[in-house]
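Sequence, structure tokens reproduced for reference:
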Amino acid sequence: MTTGTENLGLGANEAMRWERAMTELYTGFLHHGTEALESFDDEAVHQARVSSRKLLTLLSVLDPGHSSGLYAIFKQAQKRLGKVRDADVLIASFKERRTAAKRDGDKQTAKLVKAVIRHQKAERRRRRAKLADELPALINGKLKSQWEEFIEKRLPGLVSGTDANIAMRELEVAYEQQKKRCKEMFRQENPGSRKALDELHKLRISAKRIRYTANAAAFALDQKFHANEAMYKDIQSELGDITDKRVWLETMEDIGRKELDASRAAWNGFIESLQNELANALRRSTVIDVPDAE
């Protein structure tokens, strides 16, 4: 029979495990965030964003009402880091496209892609400036005192009322429900339509939540959930490829042909190639049976 004292011991041990996991992520966020501000190194930006995403995941499990105030701080940091990271990814991909166009002797496409890269580098400078303005205030403002108050005073009570396995099961149910909504949407809409792609993006977000919970809260989860990280990482990656191509198309449309000083032929050819890549990515989907885009 388990005594009350033993229960207190078990609770204290559980709180210590949560504290250890969250402190490691918090320390990583501060380290990579500071490094990102010093050089805007793309890997530092990425790791700071990942750390903030995992902290948001654990905070959502422990404190779904966000009573501590920490969620809003890390969410703002993730948003700013994410905008810089998205620009880094686009620029890197388009550099590869420019290299391929030059290799194929397609001078007009190479010129167009170079103009996109130049435009996005300017956009990245603006996003970096906002990150440099806002991240130090988040890191050096109330975060330290709020974090210490959370760990020392709030965490033990929150842990005692938390079951990460229940949270994970709820995430799995939400994923299956969103997957069902996607199937219904694809029966009604062209898979390449904004509505269909919006639902698919929501499915990706749902998969991401499961992946990060399986990773960040692995210490508190039953063995049956441990395979979720790898499984949903693959799902997230596949859906992310679709999202990337959609975002790149929308970015091109937002910039416009005239802004890039591109010929109509080069513009139409490049847009068509991106549309074909998106359609092919949709057809290759193993996550959901997507009809051929028209």
Notes: The chain is about 80% helix and 0% strand. The two ends are 65 Å apart (CA to CA).
